[in-house]
Amino acid sequence: MDDPPKVDPDEVLEKLRATPLGPSLETETARRSFLYGQLERSADPMLREMGQELSSGRTSPLALLHSDAYGAHLLSVAEQADGAALKTGLDQYVADHTPPPAPRWEDEEDDDFSEEDWLR
User: The domain containing residue 24 runs over which residues?
Assistant: First the structure.
């Protein structure tokens, strides 16, 4: 099996900044809140339970990883994840939700108005 593509978290965050998710990811607290919310809405009941535990503050990410049941489940989910499909999905989301760059006004030497005309 091929190794999953290498992903730099900082590069991912930079790509997402210009999308509607950008404000949700600005700080570590915001990123955690976003992630916990995603877990709470998961179709997987165990991931939902983990999200609820994290959101409520009843547990920490480290405690989840050290838990036999939660840790094993997280490892299983991570092993089943298709890294290439995740990267493709992320790239598509960014492409679909990043506004085009603002048009650049080019200086035209043949302008009908000089700077003096604009100041009058």
Answer: 9-96
Domain count of the fold of the chain: 1
| Domain membership flag for residue 66 | yes
pTM assigned to the model: 0.66
Both structure tokens of 56: 């409520």
Give domain status of residue 63, yes or no.
yes
Task: Answer yes or no: are the C-beta atoms of 52 and 34 closer than 8 Å.
Answer: no
Written as one string, the DSSP assignment of 11-30 is HHHHHHTTSTTGGGGSSHHH
Q: b or e along 16-29 (b: 16 or more beta carbons within 10 Å of the residue's beta carbon)?
A: beebeeeeebeeee
Give residue-wise pLDDT tens across range 28-42. 898 899 899 999 999
